[in-house]
Specification:
Elements: E1 10-11, H1 14-27, E2 31-35, H2 39-52, E3 56-60, H3 62-68, H4 78-98, E4 102-107, H5 115-132, E5 139-142, H6 149-164, E6 169-174, E7 178-181, E8 184-185, H7 198-209, E9 215-219, E10 224-225, H8 238-250, E11 258-260, H9 268-276, E12 279-284, H10 286-303, E13 311-313, E14 316-320, H11 322-325, H12 327-349
Parallel strand pairs: 1-4, 2-3, 2-12, 3-4, 4-5, 5-6, 6-9, 7-10, 11-12
Antiparallel strand pairs: 7-8, 13-14
The structure holds zinc ion.
Residues 109, 177, 181, 225, 261, 283 line the site of zinc ion (ZN).
Length: 355
């Protein structure tokens, strides 16, 4: 299975990405898609992928992109979301080659209000394609799941047609992911919105596949962003299986590629079941946030007495503590925590040793 597609390090897109997803679907393998916000998260993901010999999906949200360039306000983030996403993309293009890892570079949920973000990124994709013969991003997500199905798919069809000119994939959402993430608050949605109808999946598939097969479907089956008390989230992965079976009745040569949003906190047993039904991409955000923080917390607990002031620790009142509060030292612990977490997940999901 090693290096089955002869994938090179760097960004994967177009036909190569299409073949990769088909292969993963047939072999019951899903890739992890990790929301990154800064160099530390990107480097941690790349390093863990290099160690595990796997392919990773690095994704940036609208507000994560804005944060990347230094904007920590939620307001007026359009310019910073565009610029941040582009700078992160350039960084990942180079860093993925440096780390020797094939990467799928993706943007996460884009709601109707932020479609001008994707419009701007599409312009950059065009320029990049004209200069280098490849797109800047591998794929973009458009999330119009709160609107009616026809409207959702009409707009997504327009974007798929545009993306297709540059080998860019589209991810759509059908039914809504519950909970709250990055300013998209679905925590008060009625429960029935959290479960997609298989007929709607087939409707979307039929419309989109007329344009291109380069798309993934985030079909909701009760999934929720964030981590909650056990029992609060009722998952029904069989929706994915029913959708595959329904598609089979219409066209048995095709297969649906699904995305699992809100993967953090879900048992591996359920994740594996979802993979069996065609999930090829699993999004992780909250668990990465926890490990980022937990690394700092762990460091603080172990070195508390050396972190109270610049001078003075148990070894003497004027002993310098520079070696303890240098951010490189304590951020290294966050990186270690994220990497250890990812290595474990790659291992459990069996997506290591792909390259
Ligand atoms: Zn999501």
């Amino acid at each position: 299975m090693k290096n089955f597609l002869n994938l090179k390090s760097g960004i994967i897109y177009g036909l190569e990405l299409n073949k990769l997803f088909s292969y993963l679907n047939k072999k019951n393998i899903a890739l992890l898609a990790i929301n990154c916000i800064d160099n530390l998260t990107i480097n941690s993901v790349l390093e863990s992928a290099r160690i595990s010999k796997t392919i990773v999906i690095i994704q940036f949200s609208y507000s994560g992109s804005s944060f990347f360039i230094g904007n920590s306000n939620d307001k007026n983030s359009f310019d910073s979301s565009v610029k941040g996403a582009i700078l992160a993309a350039y960084y990942i293009h180079e860093a993925s080659i440096y780390y020797n890892v094939p990467v799928i570079l993706h943007t996460d949920h884009c709601t109707k209000d932020n479609l001008n973000w994707i419009d701007s990124l599409l312009n950059y994709n065009k320029d990049f394609f004209n200069s280098y013969g490849k797109p800047l991003f591998s794929s973009h997500m458009i999330d119009l799941s709160i609107y009616n199905l026809k409207y959702n798919i009409d707009i997504c069809s327009y974007y798929l047609n545009e993306f297709n000119k540059f080998g860019i994939f589209l991810e759509i959402e059908l039914g809504c992911t519950g909970g709250e993430e990055d300013g998209i608050d679905n925590s008060k949605l009625s429960k029935d919105k959290l479960y997609t109808k298989p007929e709607n999946v087939i409707y979307a598939f039929k419309k989109l596949s007329k344009i291109s097969n380069n798309f993934l479907i985030a079909a909701s089956f009760g999934n929720t962003h964030g981590v909650y008390k056990p029992g609060n989230v009722l998952l029904c992965p069989k929706i994915l299986l029913r959708s595959q079976n329904l598609l089979n009745k219409y066209n048995n040569s095709n297969i649906l590629n699904f995305v699992f949003h809100g993967g953090s906190g879900t048992s591996f047993k359920i994740i594996k079941e979802c993979i069996k039904y065609g999930v090829v991409k699993i999004n992780l955000d909250t668990d990465i946030q926890w490990n980022y923080w937990n690394g700092v917390l762990d460091y603080y607990k172990k070195n508390k007495l050396y972190l109270k002031s610049q001078l003075g620790n148990p070894k003497g009142i004027y002993k310098p503590n520079k070696k303890f509060y240098d951010p490189r030292i304590w951020l290294k612990n966050s990186k270690k925590f994220i990497i250890n977490y990812l290595l474990n997940v790659f291992n459990i999901l069996g997506c290591n040793n792909l390259i």
